[in-house]
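Subject: complex prediction, re-run

Hi both,

The earlier run crashed halfway through, so I resubmitted it with identical inputs.
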Amino acid sequence: MKHLLSIADLSRDEIGEIMDTAISMHDVQRRQVKKLPTLRGRTIINFFFEDSTRTRSSFEIAGKWMSADTINLTGKGTSVSKGESLRDTVKTVDAMGVDMMIVRHMASGAPAQIAQWTNCSIVNAGDGMHEHPSQALLDAYTLRSKLGDLDGKHIAIVGDLTHSRVLRSNLLCLRALGANVTLVAPPTLMPSGIGSWAATDSFEVSYDLDAVLPHVDAVMMLRVQRERMSGGYFPTAREYAVRYGLTARRLALMPRHAVITHPGPMNRGLEISADAADDAQSLVLDQVSAGVAVRMSILFHLLSGEGSSA
Amino acid sequence: MKHLLSIADLSRDEIGEIMDTAISMHDVQRRQVKKLPTLRGRTIINFFFEDSTRTRSSFEIAGKWMSADTINLTGKGTSVSKGESLRDTVKTVDAMGVDMMIVRHMASGAPAQIAQWTNCSIVNAGDGMHEHPSQALLDAYTLRSKLGDLDGKHIAIVGDLTHSRVLRSNLLCLRALGANVTLVAPPTLMPSGIGSWAATDSFEVSYDLDAVLPHVDAVMMLRVQRERMSGGYFPTAREYAVRYGLTARRLALMPRHAVITHPGPMNRGLEISADAADDAQSLVLDQVSAGVAVRMSILFHLLSGEGSSA
Amino acid sequence: MKHLLSIADLSRDEIGEIMDTAISMHDVQRRQVKKLPTLRGRTIINFFFEDSTRTRSSFEIAGKWMSADTINLTGKGTSVSKGESLRDTVKTVDAMGVDMMIVRHMASGAPAQIAQWTNCSIVNAGDGMHEHPSQALLDAYTLRSKLGDLDGKHIAIVGDLTHSRVLRSNLLCLRALGANVTLVAPPTLMPSGIGSWAATDSFEVSYDLDAVLPHVDAVMMLRVQRERMSGGYFPTAREYAVRYGLTARRLALMPRHAVITHPGPMNRGLEISADAADDAQSLVLDQVSAGVAVRMSILFHLLSGEGSSA
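This time it finished cleanly. Structure:
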């Protein structure tokens, strides 16, 4: 494993290994002195062409706790804004002798393209509407730690599925782990051609959240991008909340043991009510905590293996 | 001591302890190799919702010299700009496992509110027009190192008092240390209700800087926010400088031993003339130097005590 | 050596020493664990008043690999934007106890002025149209490692010479090392008064790139600033490329052993074609790689000598 570009590149065993290592990393995170010498003298660039608090900070903390040197670069203020090609920019950063670039980019496929241009390890930290693999791994880790083995568990993924990189990575990851997935969205936010997906990938599709909730072990609420509001995807925010929001009423439809996740940032009152966000079964903050541990595990597997580049 | 939110939370002894520890930290600062292992493996977030050079850098240097991992977050480019609530944002950062957030926020009371939402230590690095406690502690440290014990010393605080968080923290700190404080400002920039303050807190109020200066041990000039210019608080910058600026003529009114402070950034020619700013009795750069030492002391007291959170 | 402000301040021997130390640093850069303890406990401020990816990152990586504490400050969001004078801003940062400021500033001479205001070491990382000495040192290092001793070598510097700080530093550096330099540019982009320069500094001037190329050991292509386009310096981008761009046709005019450099970011298709940029004789990425090693050497010579300030 040199890169983490897509969940599709990982076998079920590799996903399991990343989650298993994350358990030890989570122990480090609970210590007063959070520091491992593992990546001392290794250099990690956080290369974020889109804004991000949680993903960037989470990777930066993971790197620092493992003693790596971490450097932040953004699209703004870089040579990209002076008309340099992306290829020249990344080859330049690569030539400095860095070991890893953690890349967020608005274009689907940019991290995979960058991996072909450079010698260092590339982690996809979110590319357009394509994938966000570290999010899927931390979600699976969080769910497994509460529900046990995900094989055969019923998980609903609900919300703006058309535009979601989190959906794609989670669907691949949960399916690889044997979970039964049901996608729930308004017809306007269900990916087109989903009929043919369903045939090959064996997941269910529903437009009726109330009907799905009584049978879930977990419900994964996805963020509605505010900019969708004016896109004609649904009439009003209130209408969306009524039809697809996880409200207090819907909470009561779920089995007692079922848990709630959300990748954040949450639109309270839109896709998730305050009751649901703050419910005892909500794992929202567990996900954030697991995020650092899982990312430490990712850095470990990509950079400290025998086959890693120098 | 888990948080530093307001000087009002500190006893005279606690203020003294922070200043005493800062003396040792100041020695470290004068070494060629400025590094203590004290906070290795602890993580400090500089969470600045308002711009700042000196306060943010000063805390960042203090943290790095004590071997902490330091991470900068700003309001821009965070999830706050995506509509996430402040509560969700800080709970997210907290869940990553950080030990301290150093918070600057435009809203008075924001750091105290954040302290109730999180498990980590919170330092108020300036909140609205409320407080800026580390500034008051470094000011007191700087004054004490030049004037000795501040008990019974006469200190004038001059300038835009209505809008100043530096005033509030300094007034509390100097009073706790037994100094006699006189507030000097144009009537439009004197906090309303100051009459009742004076009755209970035993400080003096004056509108005549010339009358006050001959009796001071120290004069603390506060910055006039440029945006006040258009607010009708005083006729013109020149008028303000003539009436309340520390000019060469006024320097001569002060006792020889009396010293000058300013928290910076200075408006030279407005509240302080170049003669005064660069006078041998000006402690402006001593304040900056002390700032790092006092902040190292604050980090030490909040994070390395027995009762600190992990 | 306390500061690096201009190549003019360095003797030929000092330039040689910096390049020689860079060879060892380059070895460190090729290791898996890139870390020297040399500058532990020393604090370096990257003070960039203009945007930069490669220079800032390169210095930041160099500092981190030598175990220094590195802190980034920009012009935006600093007290300069609140009306503070540059002098007060830099004296403030200096008073915190930093060891070095690496300064990029839009005003020619700003770093030299700052050196007079502070106690710490100042590195000029590009000032207006004046100098960019670390770029010239890394260019010389890169050329020497391919061509051997530069004494007597023929080097053409081509492009927007009027506005180029890279030109000035390179001309001084290459002349100090004994190279024969030919400047090539359209008349509108040739520095005025170049006639008198030529008399004293013994370099050649040409307006005909085709005539120069057959005799070079190296051709140094400089970036055309996009903002020149509308300045009337040349009719169109296409016209510039045809007359002064390093095209596939011109590549064939160069001797086989001759090499190509460009400080980046490149305008592919303008001053340099894709063929030339990606040619086997192009040293563009070697320059970037050498940049970190040469900057480590600069930090070493300025900060770890006996005479360095604490």
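Residues 133-287 of chain A form a domain with the Rossmann fold fold (CATH 3.40.50.1370).

- K.
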